[in-house]
Design a protein that fits this description.
With 308 residues, this protein is α/β, with parallel strands linked by helices. The chain has one domain: Alpha-Beta Barrel (TIM Barrel). The chain is built from eleven helices and twelve strands. The strands form two sheets. Strands 1, 2, 3, 4, 5, 8, 9, 10, 11 and 12 form a ten-stranded parallel sheet that branches. The longest helix has 18 residues. The protein is globular.
Amino acid sequence: MKIGLFIGGAGSAGTLQGQISQIVEAEKAGFDSLWAAHIMDIDVMTMLSMAAEQTTRIEIGTAVTPTFLRHPIAMAQQALTVQKVANGRFTLGLGVNHKPVVEGRLGMKFHRPWRHMFEYLNIVHSLTREGKVDYEGEIFSANTQFTMSSLPEIPVLLAALGPRMLNTAGELADGTITWMTGTETLKRYIVPTINDAAHKVGREKPRVVAAVPLSITDDRDSAFEQADKYFGGYGQLPSYRAMLDREGVESSAEMALIGNEKEVEVMLKGYSEAGATDIAVQIFPTGREADSSLNRSMVFLSGLVGKL
């Protein structure tokens, strides 16, 4: 199982240069990948493009870019541009986001999310693979041709939790990215569903990137309180609430991997055994010495790369 870092899922993601520096440092520390959430902060695809110029090896990806913010033509253009800068190290994570965000913040109708993603993905695929599209759907229409001299391959992962979205991820995309999803849910629902969908159309097993909060600490109670502060709100969103219910837990803070090094290593192995191909870790600080807490988790994780 590959080990990467995840930034931007709770609290401020930091300054533009700060996020770029995190990617540079992650590469130096040996991590396989770094994933950035598109929240109400900087544009992460622009940031990843800038970070790609300062790195050479690490995979960079969005986890995820909301589809409602861009027409699929614009998404394809930007993704191709980032991939050219990254020399093949960029992975595009797409998601429809959540109804409260789409309707409350963007003022748009959160309507037929599966159909929205199905049509969106078809347009993005046509443009990134063939450089042209002629598509008339129920939600999206696109008829254009790019003039780019070459089209770099772009892996696409979907934020897929529901069965129809998971089937689409297995049939058309390269895999899924999960959040607030535990090992039992992965083993009994996510992985079998997406693998079966891929198998039915003759595709290889898709990638399953499990994004999880993590803190290496000897003070579990304090860490849980901090996790609840950072991540407690996710349980109010229906898609994540469904994952928590499948896992049999009440609070989204219970999805955080908390404990000392030996304890958390066992937890991480559980994700590998459940079928995750990648783990994307959002490290959160606990205790009075925040920097020391973060450093302890970073050292631990970097030492596990290539061993799980």
